[in-house]
Each structure stands twice: as structure tokens, then as C-alpha cells.
Amino acid sequence: MYLGIPENGSMCIQTDNQRCYIGMDYSVLENEADRRVHLAHELGHCITGSFYNRWAVADVRKKHENKADKWAIEKIIPREKFYQAIDAGYKDAWALAEHFNVTLEFMKKAMCWYEHGNLAYEYYCD
Q1: CA 108 to centroid of chain Cα atoms
Q2: Which of 24, 80, 106, 125 has the fewest Cβ atoms within 10 Å of its own Cβ atom?
Q3: CA–CA separation, 81 vs 49, rounded Å?
């Protein structure tokens, strides 16, 4: 079944009985790295229970988005493997992204999370 989500490429919902459903728009998510990052992020929402509704204020949304991202980072780029890759010579964000098969933006978040304890790579890690 095709699900059109052109604004962000993926989404998840949680029903009243606590079941999670994830939808992904493959016309937006064109490569494996995009799909991998989006799926991990949406699973992060499901596993951590980080949901909000469309009326939530921006700071509440950001809190839940960050929680999902942190879960995703720790699952697909575990801290130990991240530092092993750096020790093996993968020093640049793009090289690490290719090594872990994730997007460059996601890798920058991971680098900032592991090096600075936050996801604000646009301020601290770019």
C-alpha cells in the first residue's frame, strides 16, 4: 500500500491500545540510508513512547523528536562501534555516514550526541 507523506517521508502513530504503526513514503526516501534512518527514528518514537499530537507546541515536539533520534542513534550507531570506526580511520562525517549507511545529517547528530551530549549539531558540531 502506498502512503504519501511528502513533507517528511515517514510517520508513526500509536493507537489507544498502545500498538504502533509506521508509514514510510518510498518516493521521498530514495535510498537505503534515508530509509534506514527514518525507520530507526520512527521505531524510536514507538519504543520510547515519544508521541505528540498536531496541536503540541514546538518545544514539546522537539523533546519527543530528540528522544526518538537519540534512541535511533544508539541502536544503529552504537557508541562503541562509533569510536571503533573513528579509531579505524573514519574521521569525517561523510566517511562515517557511508560506513554506517546513514544520512550525513543523521551522522552529524550522532557525532554531536556522542561528543557533546546533545543533538544540536547545527550550533555545536557543524
Answers
A1: 11
A2: 80
A3: 26
